[in-house]
């Protein structure tokens, strides 16, 4: 069934798709979560993002290969269901929904932290609640409105990062009072790789949180006006842009200020410009990082509604979620997802200042499940296409298939092992088998009801 036939509107243009992808990946992971990466890797943080970016690029090409061939709403959940089996489709869909629920909670938490830069007495939970209501209402208007807002949210981030890089380079080579900053900060505080290769390895964990959300490109395929053109262009262009923004911006920060004095009380971007005596730049960047958090949360609300819609169309969620309003919006999915995200508001009330790290760990685990599913399903998808004699007809093939699949799978296994040896993230690894068991039991209950 086409998306036009079932009511889903193809209202997202190529510029929307590209900026949605940027919006999903350039957010709190970069502007706030990078503090944890800097602490582990020091100036070598650039290596960490290059490695993580390469892995994510390959995974995105795997998803893109399938999304271009079959542009449907729900993306990899649909492919898992079709090419792997009922339970993988059930698991991948509900896990991705859960992943973005947790990411949404993390973004709302970050919004509170950013607001405290100006208004330290406003509690995080209150800021989170206001943002939740406003963004939910925005997503109930139309998909075109969502795309337009996300486009401009992303434009603000991109322009700001480029401006920060240019301004940072000016400070490096000329200085505020005519005295150049120089590059000494890259090595005088324990060396370029102060914590050795172990530090770089462990830094890959928060790095992967930074890249979480870029798979949203695949979710948008069902509402893209020309998916065969826009999806490949978005994947190929967005990845190198993100690497430039991440690596370029963080390289400038590492040169401007000692890495071991950054701290984690706010965004490293804001803190550094504030500490080197440029409050105007710090204030402007805080506006940008606030916009970034709202952008990712906006993408989360959009994604969750569409994933519940896809699950309902498969029969893996209540039929209520398969209903669209006249504007093609899955209202029930959007409202229920936002309602559950209220848990994040409650957590911010109960554990102010502590919840972000825990949410990040759970989000990484959920993202690893999603990415692993994409890797395995892509292998099965390609095998099915070859068996049908359509292997050579694919328009957007994964480079070096299937070796890149095996490489990325091994990398994700390593990420989970590293998390098991990280005190603040160990609990998320222990929760992993429990979460998979819950999904398995839920699937069995669903099947037993269908057989009656």
From TrEMBL:
**Membrane topology per record:** Multi-pass membrane protein
Principal place of residence: membrane
Q: Does the keyword Cytoplasm apply?
A: no
* Annotated localization: Cell membrane
Kindly list the biological process annotations in GO that this record carries: amino acid transport; transmembrane transport
Q: Which residues form the Amino acid permease/ SLC12A domain?
A: 16-449
Q: Which residues cross the membrane?
A: 20-38, 44-63, 97-119, 125-144, 151-176, 196-217, 238-256, 276-297, 329-349, 355-379, 400-421, 427-443
GO cellular component terms, A-Z = plasma membrane
Q: Which UniProt keywords apply?
A: Amino-acid transport, Cell membrane, Membrane, Transmembrane, Transmembrane helix, Transport
What InterPro entries would the database entry show?
A: AA-permease/SLC12A_dom (IPR004841)
Question: So what family is this one in?
Answer: Belongs to the amino acid-polyamine-organocation (APC) superfamily. Amino acid transporter (AAT) (TC 2.A.3.1) family.
Stated name of the protein: Amino acid permease/ SLC12A domain-containing protein
Q: Which organism is it from?
A: Desulfitobacterium hafniense (strain Y51)
- Give the classification, highest ranks: Bacteria, Bacillati, Bacillota, Clostridia, Eubacteriales
